[in-house]
Amino acid sequence: MAEFVDSTVKEIDGRLSELKEEVAKLEAARAALVGGRRGPGRLPGSSSGSRPVRRRTGRGPGRPRGRRSGGTRAAQALDLVRSQPGITIPQIAESLKIEPNYLYRVMPKLVSDGEVKRDGQGWHPADK
User: Fold this and answer.
1) Quick one: how far is CA 117 from the chain centroid?
2) Do residues 78 and 115 make contact, with C-beta atoms less than 8 angstroms apart?
3) From CA 91, how far away is CA 88, in angstroms rounded?
């Protein structure tokens, strides 16, 4: 049990580190784009407009949000793990041309479904 807790804490710490790096990059990119254009006393991320911008979601009232295609990325990730045992999330993301953070949600679902298992940083097909 202690080994599980230690490995889980280590995974969480690693993910937090990655997220902090991503936040720093995004903040730097935002600063480069907007410079110092925020007015005094404004919160970061607040716009200069007086009305909030309403974006269309593409769905009408009563239509629930949900997945569009039902796990296509998960299936693609699973195919990659099966063809390249030991592949890492960054490698999977590069192959699929998506951001790695999405895969940090997809891969645990594949683990819970019994499709893959993790060994260190690499992912392997689960023994069935």
Assistant:
1) 19
2) yes
3) 5
Percent of the chain with pLDDT over 70: 71
Cα 116 to Cα 12, 46, 50, 75, 92: the distances in Å are: 19, 42, 50, 11, 13
**Residues β-bridged to residue 46:** none
Asked whether the predicted pLDDT for residue 66 surpasses 80, the reply is no
Assessment of whether the complete model's pTM goes beyond 0.90: no
List, in sequence order, every residue forming a beta bridge with 115; answer none if it has no partner: none
* 97 residue type, one letter: K
* Separation CA 45–CA 116 (nearest Å): 39
> CA-CA distance, 19 to 27, in Å (whole number)?
12
Burial level of 95, CB count in 10 A (0-12/13-18/19+)?
A: middle
Q: Give which of 125, 127, 123 is closest to 92, Cα–Cα.
A: 123
Architecture of the CATH domain 71-128: Orthogonal Bundle (1.10)
Give the separation between CA 97 and CA 114, rounded to whole angstroms: 25
Q: CA–CA separation, 22 vs 25, rounded Å? A: 5
CB atoms within 10 A of CB 78: 21
